[in-house]
Write a structure and sequence with these properties.
The longest helix has 10 residues, at 59-68. The protein has a 6-stranded mixed β-sheet. The radius of gyration is 15 Å and the shape is globular. By secondary structure, the chain is α+β, with helices and mostly antiparallel strands. The chain has helices at residues 11-17, 59-68, 87-91, 138-146, and strands at 3-9, 25-28, 36-46, 71-83, 111-126, 133-135. Bound molecules: zinc ion.
């Protein structure tokens, strides 16, 4: 049974963008040991844009964001997960990766989830979101098998 990660927009669409410029680090305050393809689900709620925050949201991405909210967008390979500001983090070049976020003093440390090779569904389908890395429902698992992929 595949696992699903609910991500707020516009970050979910940026993950599915792939190279060049797509989001290849997911920032979470909890570690995962899961390494496999995971399903990306766009939360219905939008993240609040922060002025000056990377990236500037392009009109193309924002148009995709509106129609993707509350839907399963596709899959991405979760290669690994490491703690910020560690040798492993340096190895992955996070300091020069604009998608990597960093905790401030007194905040929970951030784990960088390493993502690669997103594959998008032609038609994202609706699903309810959940917290954590959750098990795909039988309906989601079925739709992933029968829907068309880009
Ligand atoms: Zn890192």
């Amino acid at each position: 049974m595949p696992r699903v990660l609910t991500v707020r927009e516009p970050w979910a669409s940026w993950i599915m963008q792939g190279i060049p410029g797509g989001k290849d680090i997911e920032n979470r305050t909890w570690r995962t040991h899961h390494q496999d393809w995971i399903v990306i689900h766009a939360a219905a709620a939008l993240a609040r844009p922060v002025p000056g925050q990377f990236p500037e949201f392009s009109p193309e991405v924002m148009a995709a964001v509106e129609k993707n909210r509350g839907r399963v967008l596709g899959i991405v390979h979760l290669l690994g997960c490491h703690l910020e500001r560690t040798p492993e983090c340096a190895f992955h070049g996070c300091e020069s990766n604009p998608w990597a976020q960093w905790s401030q003093p007194g905040e929970k440390p951030i784990y960088h989830w390493e993502l690669a090779n997103p594959r998008r569904l032609v038609t994202p389908f609706r699903a309810e979101g959940h917290l954590g890395l959750w098990d795909a429902t039988p309906t989601i698992e079925h739709l992933l098998k029968v829907e068309d992929w880009q």
